[in-house]
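User: Quick one: structure for sequence A, then sequence B.

Assistant: Sequence A:
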Amino acid sequence: MIRAIVTDVEGTTSSLAFVKDTLFPYAASALPAFVRAHGDDAEVAALLAEVAAETGARDHAAVIDTLLGWIREDRKATPLKTLQGLIWAEGYASGRLRGHVYADAVRQLRAWHAAGIRLYVYSSGSVKAQKLLFAHTPFGDLTPLFDGHFDTRIGGKREAASYRGIIAGLGLPADEVLFLSDVCAELDAAREAGLRTCQLLREGVDPKPCGHPQAADFDGVSLDV
């Protein structure tokens, strides 16, 4: 019996195009001014120091160049993801940004929540960014549906150890937890950790079977896996 569902965001609950064509360009455009305005704030300064320690960047200008390069590479670096979350927070607060979530995902998340199934998010985007997206949608604030959030601070999404860490946090047997994603390598890692899996075949996803149950959308996700 499935007692909890852990879902990816990009390409699963939400459009990849929204992330790549809206969120990333917004963060890249706003990042230089944001760093200059908030570089001395304690939280931002700590994140910039992480980048400098990793790359040897000597000043804010060099750190900004590094971060913009990471955005272009779509690098899953925790300090970058956290900074993006802070930048997006300003965008959502100003009304310039609005989170995209598929209608079928909203419908099923609400149904599963009402049925007593615990819901969690695991994304390479920071926990802050996840909460912002789900708090500012055309369907209203969806954050009350979720029992918890995980990001790369628990580990990479293609590493089985990350999913073992999630299971330890949930306090449930692994085979009572279903992981939803569009990426086969992530599903492989989750299955290695003992979780049940289902691949979402959103737009642009190769429908070739990769050893996991598949669904075109959340309405097609079976809990009898």
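Sequence B:
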Amino acid sequence: MAGFRLPAPSPLEMSDRNLSKAWTKFHQNFTNFELATGIKEKGDAIRIATLLSVIGQEAVDTFNTFIFPTGDETKFEKFIEKFENHCKGKTNTTYERYMFNCRNQHGGENIDSFVTALKALAESCEFGELKDSLILDRVILGISDRQLKQQLLRTEVLTLDKAIGIIRTAAAASAQLDHMTSESSEGHALSKHS
């Protein structure tokens, strides 16, 4: 059986305006890379060397400024902890909430893409237990269809999942109506030419 070579994750973008999100994305990709390649089963020295090999030069330069208590410089989890503290400390919650609250549905964007974008933005907003409720509010305020917005506002006991279901159903019905209308128009045009 032929093996395959898994590409290393993209380097950590230290200059990203949202370093916290960039770190979260890199860490997730690196964790998956370690699992898929078997590196996670190796010792800390190999895991550290692999991390420093793929994280990018900017991040290595940052790493070189870290000070470790004696003994921690050889522990992989301490390396991750240092990067986590460095990158997560750079989040401006007020700005992240501003970005979340400015996000509206783009033209042609389906509800699933819109909600995924809102959930990603909400991750750095520190909403706590209000997260789903605030995402629901943003969905209602941010969808482009005025009639659908009214329908959602009229719905009693509206949850995020229920709102997504209503919007999906409306989108499917609209697509079906468009298809039926175009089929009817084509049939009508053909009968005129016969």
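The radius of gyration is 24 Å. The mean pLDDT is 88.

User: Thanks, that's what I needed.
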